[in-house]
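Forgive a beginner's question, but would it be possible to get any protein sequence you like and the tokens describing how it folds?
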Amino acid sequence: MDSFCASLKVKQIVKTPTTRGNTSLDVILTNMYNFYTPPSTLPPLGGSYHLSILLSPSSTFKHTFSKTYSTYRPLQNSGLLSFGMWLSTEDWSDIYSLQNLDEKTATFHKKLIDKYQICFPEKRFKRCSSDKPFINQTIKTLIRTKLKLFKNGKLDQANILRKSIKREIRKLARSYYKNKIEELFTNKPKNWYSEVKKLFGRSLDQLNFNLSEPPDVTANSLNKFLASIVQSLPALPIQLSTGAPSPLFPTVSPSEIERRIDKLRKTSVCPLDIPFPLIRAFGDFLSKPLSVLFNEITKSGQIPTIWKQGFITPLKKKNGKPGFDGVRPITLTPIFSKLYEGFLADLLKEKILPLTDLKQFGNLKSTSTSHYLVSLIDHIGKILEKPNSWLNLISIDLQKAFDLVNHNILIEKLESEFNIEPLLVKLVASFLTNRSQVVKYQNHYSNPLPIYNGIPQGTLLGPLLFSVMVNSLAKEVPDVGNFLMT
């Protein structure tokens, strides 16, 4: 070997043992050894007893994978037990004794959040951009332990742990696909494709404005941009008519609230909420104080201020424009607010749905774009069957339709066109006014900004109220077989 290396002017650079027997069976011959660091050994591949060799360049290169540090609160059994014991013994008397509804609701949320933070301590973890979405902190800890065992020469223990890690990763991958991806294949194919791309490490483009300013400043700038759309019109004081006294509405019982909590679909929560699994698991304990709050809200005709704040997560539009114009805002509101909206929406639907124009195909249950297209094609076919007939098809897009709704016109329609009781109208007016929004960007929250006009998106009442707003649109156009899709 020495004469061979001398004749070619190369050098054997592997000096460390590469087997368990303290012998080196690997050869790396090079005349450029000055450009590389001394070879190091890595754990065996698969079930091999032969160590791998890593040869690295002496120059360091910047890692291409970005790393982020996040915090989370794992829902461990000990915490669940403590949180459940507290809820089962809490009488909420300190909240019931408060006179102000806003103060009652804010205190209720604060008590839940404070106890949640005590029962479930915060932990910090590092995530790499190349990580699969199902890889959790437990797997990362096990991988680090395995590498330490290999480095310390405990190969048997390391191989046992390696097999255990592989089994756990396969289990997590199957669970992730079944719970988050599989059903999307038939219901939402587009979303299914996006999730599969994430599963194979091909993440979608992340929202990054590449601005020189800090993320918290960008969050405030983005919030101002989004709020400017609804702040372009001056705030109009809502004028309520003085009608006859409203009939007594049925109170909401704890059992009804518990039933609706059980039917809640898993959803993202805003910073005012405790995690969704806790709300679902302890719905029976939460239903009593919620029923007191809900019935007091209905009696007073006022929606709590804390429930009128929207938390916006900006997403990047597909093929969208650069900058803020290419953002699609997703708004989150408190889950308890949505629960109350469900009861209020049921009361409104009793009066609104019987008077809704049948030409509406959007924002209504049991109707969709498919129904609209079938009706439109049928209408076109009937016209073209007539001799010497022709038609014009005009499609109109209402830009920022939800954001630019005039509150006074909407309230007038509820009173005159649908004959909604004054107390319900007062609740809707309270729901629409004095709202605010906050933008979250790269784990930084902006300052809240007031929202003067429009119908809040991401709420249960929003689509129903928009249907009211456009209900008479088709009637005001000459009847030439027009169709309305909202």
Notes: The chain is about 45% helix and 10% strand. The CA atoms of residues 150 and 156 lie 9 Å apart.
